[in-house]
Amino acid sequence: MSMQAVFILALIISAVIGYLLGGVSWAIILTRIVQRRDIREQGSGNAGMTNVLRSVGKLPALLTFAGDFIKCVIAVLLSQLALYLLAMAFTDIAPGAELFRYTRYIAGTACVVGHIFPIYYGFRGGKGIVTAAAMILLTDWRVFIAVILTFGLVFAWKKIMSLCSVTSAGMYPVCTFLIVFFMDYSRGFCGLEYLLFATGVSVFVGVLVMVKHRANIGRLMRGEEKPIIGTKSR
């Protein structure tokens, strides 16, 4: 088997692993444990950390955050292991660093998709913010810093989680393109294919997150979205 075939197989495995792990909704699991209820029938109806914080409490929200973050970490790590083991088994040659970067993106993106459209819960999941944050950190820490700074500045200004999420999602592809172009591509550290791939993935994830926030965007435009103060909305 050629390295190209191994790489394609690793991408497929990474996508499957990422999607299946992403579909494990800790918001739904923990709310059922604590309240014997479905978080999607409470508050905003979203299976995510913010709704758990408002509807269930601080500890379940913290555990939801940790679970949604860690599942993406596990998915990405397994994708790296799968690529390495397949390459060594069929070619006896270690894959190049860029191949590992591609599989990280695929596993992370699939995890975000699985979180938003979980097969285990009728394809009704969360909005993907925490899982997407983990994906960004694991694929490019420089972009993560830029995006998290954007999130933090908007939160300090308005304290509206949806506004922070939407703004960060919009900035994600912008930051990805600028950072990869000026710090990697223009300096010969990556090819045009990787620049286009990374930018394309970031556009996909950013748009997906924004589409999931379309109701929030409508409320933001009408001035109806509420800020978070502590654990309660104002």
Task: Describe this protein's structure.
The chain has 234 residues and is an all-alpha fold. It folds into 2 domains: 1-122, no CATH class; 140-234. The chain has helices at residues 3-22, 26-35, 49-55, 58-90, 97-116, 129-139, 141-158, 161-185, 192-212, 214-222, and strands spanning 228-229, 232-233. It has a two-stranded antiparallel sheet. β1 (228-229) and β2 (232-233) form a beta hairpin. α5 runs antiparallel to α6. The N and C termini lie far apart (60 Å). The relative contact order is 0.12.
Total strands? 2
Q: Which series of helices and strands comes N to C? A: HHHHHHHHHHEE
Main sheet strand line-up: 1-2
Helical content class: over 70%
Alpha-carbon distance between the two ends: 60 Å
CA radius of gyration is 19 Å
Q: Percent of residues in beta strands?
A: under 5%
Low-confidence stretches: 230-234
Number of helices: 10
Number of domains: 2
What form results from the Cα inertia axes? globular
Nearest-integer average pLDDT: 94
